From TrEMBL, chains A, B:
Alphabetized InterPro entries for the sequence: CASP/CASPL, CASP_dom, CASPL
Coiled coil: none
Localization of this protein: Cell membrane
Bias (Basic and acidic residues) ranges: 1-13
Transmembrane segments: 41-60, 80-103, 115-145, 165-190
Superkingdom in the source lineage: Eukaryota
Keywords carried by this UniProt record: Cell membrane, Membrane, Transmembrane, Transmembrane helix
Name of protein: CASP-like protein
């Protein structure tokens, strides 16, 4: 159908002059790299959305029951859930800043190597933070769900069902955010590795 | 002081013949790369030692008190600590296998790029596992230490002091192992990044 020798009419009209000659292996990976950064932006936007969703579901988890006196359950009754909220907030803020960074790289690809290096470094830290916070909140939530007979910690979720449903939702989304962070580190590492000449 | 044209007497006497011609950017990073893998081996040995230490301290945490009936605390009374033990075991086994891998790269450096890529990929997964397990165990241990008045979970560490000391020790060593895993990922990423021609 399309001939390889066909001249692109757009190119003839308004092709900007290349600022410097493209040489060596960089020319081969340039298009792929732009695609990588587009995937990077998509993952970071998804990370931002999931951290915001997890935060909203967590802070709206308050539940009050009358059994027989009014009792309420709120996420800030446990330090584990406060740590969880702080970690999610840091991850959300980080994903917002790095999304803007990735968009800037798509527009100006010169510093892509440096960005990939910084992203791999900081994404690992945020992954450690989010994974540990998810574990902390999950561990305490599990005790709330099942109780522990050995130390006589009673179940909480039989009384505060809505509260526990919110917690479970928030934990699931946070686990998804951890997976996204692993994918982001992998993407950066693969992109850096691809730049090594064979 | 020293002339740039001075001939090194050592070089003239017993310079071994190069097995194959060194070409391109690899010649500049070759010595540094061997050093990187030595640091890698050191970190992995340290990771192995710390996971084994954390496991030993965790499984020897059993304590029995008479107050007034005999009561015992053991790590397998809580699923959080079982998960912690499993994660530490996986990390320990992984560190052992990858230490051998790194030693093989020091002896035969041809496949160093591939090893660095695989290490960066799998180290991130193990980091996520150890960080989340440390968080889970830490969250439950904190409830044991401080209790939670809102849901009437009583303190455990006032009764089982030795058990809680063991837990705290195991958690501290596990946190150190998480830091080692972050350093290992960073080392791999830096080593891969260094191979990109400027």
């Amino acid at each position: 159908m399309a001939s390889t020798e066909k001249v692109d009419p757009e190119q003839g009209k308004e092709a900007p002059p290349s600022p410097k000659p493209i040489s060596g292996p960089s020319s081969a990976t340039c298009t792929a790299e732009a695609t990588c950064f587009k995937v990077d932006v998509a993952l970071r936007v998804l990370l931002f959305a999931s951290t915001v969703a997890a935060i909203v579901v967590l802070v709206t988890s308050k539940q009050t029951v009358r059994a027989p006196l009014p009792l309420s359950a709120k996420f800030n009754h446990s330090p584990a859930f406060i740590y969880f909220l702080v970690a999610l907030s840091i991850a959300g803020l980080y994903s917002l800043v790095t999304t803007l960074g990735s968009i800037s790289v798509i527009l100006k690809p010169e510093h892509s190597s440096k960005f990939l290096l910084y992203y791999a470094i900081f994404d690992v830290l945020i992954l450690g933070l989010v994974a540990s916070a998810t574990g902390t909140a999950g561990g305490v939530a599990y005790v709330g769900l099942k109780g522990n007979d050995h130390v006589r910690w009673q179940k909480v979720c039989s009384t505060f069902d809505k509260f526990c449903q919110h917690l479970a939702g928030s934990l699931a989304v946070s686990l998804f955010a951890s997976v996204l962070l692993v994918l982001l580190v992998w993407l950066s590492v693969f992109s850096i590795h691809k730049k090594i000449p064979k």
